[in-house]
């Protein structure tokens, strides 16, 4: 697992962790090898920002070429709308994860739950 400080798991997370441990044990008994490729939440957040920067610059530049002005005019209403759109997109993004997992996991939608890790501001 990751080297970051562990957070206290909820009851549902504890059940998923135990179910995963049982499945892992069963598969290892069948000859599978476990290779942990987990990254920390902090690393994932950093990589998301780093990977987004080139796209933001590219699309900002294309917007500027087409409109001859910067993408944000820094009016308060524009900033509020962008922030609202950002949060709507987060919910849509997580909803797509939930829909996909619900359709393709063994337990379907009973296997899906949503949560939020406040100390990392991560859904």
Give the SSE map:
Layout: H1 11-29, H2 41-67, H3 76-104
Write a concise synopsis of the structure shown.
The chain has about 120 residues and is mostly helical. Helix content is about 60%, strand content about 0%. The chain is elongated.
Description:
The chain is mostly helical and 123 residues long. 61% of the residues lie in helices and 0% in strands. The chain is built from three helices and no strands. The protein has helices at residues 11-29, 41-67, 76-104. The two termini are 19 Å apart. The model has no long low-confidence stretch (mean pLDDT 85).
Q: What are the low-pLDDT stretches, counting only 5+ consecutive residues below 50?
A: none
Radius of gyration, taken over Cα atoms and rounded to an integer in Å: 20 Å
Number of helices: 3
How far from one another are the termini? 19 Å
Shape call = elongated
Derived from helix and strand composition plus strand pairing, the structural class reads mainly alpha
Give the helices and strands as they follow along the chain.
Answer: HHH
Mean pLDDT: 85
The share of residues in extended strands comes to under 5%
User: What proportion of the residues is helical, as a percent range?
Assistant: 55-70%
What characteristics describe this protein?
123 residues; 3 helices; 0% strand
